[in-house]
Design goal:
alpha/beta; 592 residues; six-stranded mixed sheet; single chain; Nitrilase/N-carbamoyl-D-aminoacid amidohydrolase; Rossmann fold; elongated; 2 domains; seven-stranded mixed sheet
């Protein structure tokens, strides 16, 4: 039986850490050799990390990435490897087996898959479908490639694709399959958002069925600034059935055997059906690989099909990985956050503990004259259950001193949001002072609902280094908190925190709903307006009150200047409040 053994490396690179990324790659290559694979596949831009952004505009960085690739190549003896890297134009044909490097000419950059076999660079594939929507801006750095290589390993033809090259049902895969490809390899760095892993598996299965090919999809894992990569690598048979599935948010080598005789039996039929295939595929270049190893037959492998996570567990896992990697990759020893007794800070604290460990999280309780006894009790209960350190600093003396200093200027003007924001800004100053003194990363605790409508204070509760739940709507905050309480031996978030009405506690008897519509109404309106770009009239037709819709949209539009000054946070929804949504601050357009 003709069997192709494929290993998909779900690795967690760090952008710019070329040496560290190479060490990871070499470790996975050694692991792949132990399992006697024919082909090991790495994610998109594995050498540089995804996405290097303007590092790519520095010629010396590109040159160092070339040297990093050269360090990997000779270690791949006895197997073939497909490795994401940065490529450049060269004077010679990059598909030539005599080519020593795909980086000879520094004038043009390509998002590239290096094709390596038996310790030699035998060619490359350059990404054709550059991504330029939402968070992506690949045309700023890369040119689209033109090559269509087929890798020939042990009698098996393999089509190589990169990221969105695989998404067009009438594009590259169809050409490669018509040209004889039995396996399509796709290397990817696909950022997570809610529901994406399921929709991705569906379209990959559709590509496999349409073209009657095996699909091997390798995805990155890890956090990178506001992005988090979920893994969930897939090996699909020609009917779209799952042969192997990697875990979510875990580094691992996903290894599986593919019975190529089953696929090959269909090749003749497919070729007969593809009239004019020779003309269609005249631009496909074959790169043949002969592996030098000699060894006895390999025992078959039992495929690993990891069960996909439920949506709420997947979102929680994304938050945990994002916090862990942001702290680790940026060299922070600990994290600190303000605890208010509310659900937002409680959830953020739970995520931080799960990401870093209780000994690396500091809670800070900053009561004001309006802080309730219930909030104090809930903070102490949360801290005890999580096992974290707690610092208590009353802001009342500082607040009174500020009011006294400002009294001659304020005169007889009445109390308003100024005094509320002043309390938030004192808290922000205290937290940032502790960050300076102890080196802790301050985690902010504002959710997407609040940030969308400006229910937040610049230099106050928005002060910090990383916004954990910035893209999590308030209703989802409650769902995540309930989910977290269902894990482990006991709930960590107090029941009262989940049950009492949310309040900023910046004035007597304050409730969020004094200033905002109920979150059960607010969140769907925000989703329609921000994530789906629906017009006010469309939202009203969906059943929402006209006055409420107009009020919410006005709050969103007026708060753009705040969001531009907010710390970055984890992308969870299809359209986050960051690079996904690039609205001008100075903006005279108002939709009636």
């Amino acid at each position: 039986m003709k069997t192709l053994r494929i290993a998909m490396a779900q690795m967690n690179p760090t952008v710019g850490d070329l040496d560290g990324n190479v060490r990871q790659i070499l470790s996975w290559v050694r692991e792949a050799k132990k399992t006697k694979v024919d082909l090991v596949v790495f994610p998109e831009l594995a050498i540089t990390g995804y996405h290097p952004e303007d590092l790519l505009l520095k010629p010396w960085f590109v040159e160092e990435s070339r040297r990093a690739l050269q360090e990997v190549i000779p270690t791949c003896e006895g197997l073939a490897a497909i490795l994401g890297c940065v490529g450049q134009d060269e004077k010679r044909d990059s598909m030539s087996s005599k080519s020593a490097s795909c980086f000879a000419d520094p004038s043009t950059l390509y998002n590239t898959a290096a094709l390596i076999a038996d310790g030699k660079l035998i060619g490359s594939y350059r990404k054709r479908s550059l991504v330029n929507h939402g968070i992506f801006d690949e045309s700023r750095y890369f040119q689209p490639g033109q090559q269509r290589p087929l890798l020939h390993i042990g009698g098996v033809l393999i089509g190589v694709t990169l990221c969105e090259d695989i998404e067009n049902s009438n594009g590259l895969i169809r050409r490669q399959a018509a040209g004889g490809a039995e396996v399509i390899v796709n290397i990817n760095a696909a950022p997570f958002h809610r529901g994406k892993s399921r929709s991705r598996e569906q379209f990959l299965a559709a590509r496999a069925r349409e073209n009657r090919v095996i699909v091997a999809y390798t995805n990155m894992v890890g956090g990178q600034d506001e992005l988090v990569f979920d893994g969930n690598s897939l090996l699909l048979d020609r009917t779209g059935g799952v042969l192997a599935r990697g875990a979510a948010f875990q580094e691992e080598l996903v290894v599986a055997d593919v019975n190529m005789e089953v696929v090959s039996s269909r090749r003749l039929t497919r070729r007969r059906q593809a009239r004019g295939a020779k003309i269609i595929c005249a631009d496909l270049a074959r790169v043949s690989v002969k592996l030098s190893r000699k060894e006895p037959p390999r025992p078959p492998l039992e495929p690993v099909v990891t069960k996909p996570l439920e949506e709420i567990e997947e979102i929680y896992g994304a938050l945990v990985m994002a916090v862990r990697d942001y702290v680790r990759k940026n060299g922070f020893a600990r994290a600190a956050l303000g605890l208010s007794g509310g659900v937002d800070s409680a959830l953020t604290a739970a995520v931080a503990v799960d990401a870093l460990g209780a000994d690396r999280v500091r809670g800070v309780f900053l009561p004001s004259p309006y802080t309730s006894r219930a909030s104090e009790e809930d903070v102490k209960e949360l801290v005890q259950r999580l096992g974290i350190e707690l610092s208590v600093i009353s802001i009342t003396p500082t607040f009174e001193a500020y009011l006294l200093s400002l009294a001659p200027v304020f005169g007889d003007r009445g109390v308003d949001a100024t005094e509320e924001n002043l309390q938030a800004r004192i808290r922000g100053t205290m937290l940032m002072a502790m960050s300076n003194k102890f080196g802790d990363l301050v985690l902010t605790t504002g959710n997407k609902s609040e940030l969308s409508v400006g229910y937040s204070t610049l230099y106050g509760d928005m002060a910090g280094g990383f916004a954990v739940i910035k893209d999590v709507p308030k209703t989802m905050v409650y769902a995540l908190a309930t989910f977290r309480n269902g894990r482990g031996p006991f709930p960590v978030i107090p029941t009262r925190t989940l049950e009492r009405p949310p309040s900023a506690e910046l004035r007597p008897d304050q409730k969020d709903e004094d200033s905002l519509p109920p979150y059960s109404i607010l969140d769907p309106i925000l989703q329609a307006y921000i994530e789906e770009d629906r017009s006010p009239e469309d939202i009203i037709k969906a059943g929402f009150n006209r006055t409420t819709v107009a009020r919410v949209i006005q709050m969103v539009d007026r708060s753009e200047f705040k969001r531009h000054q907010a710390p970055i946070g984890v992308k969870i929804t299809p359209r986050a409040l960051g690079k996904d949504r690039r609205m001008p601050i100075t903006n005279g357009y108002r939709r009636p």
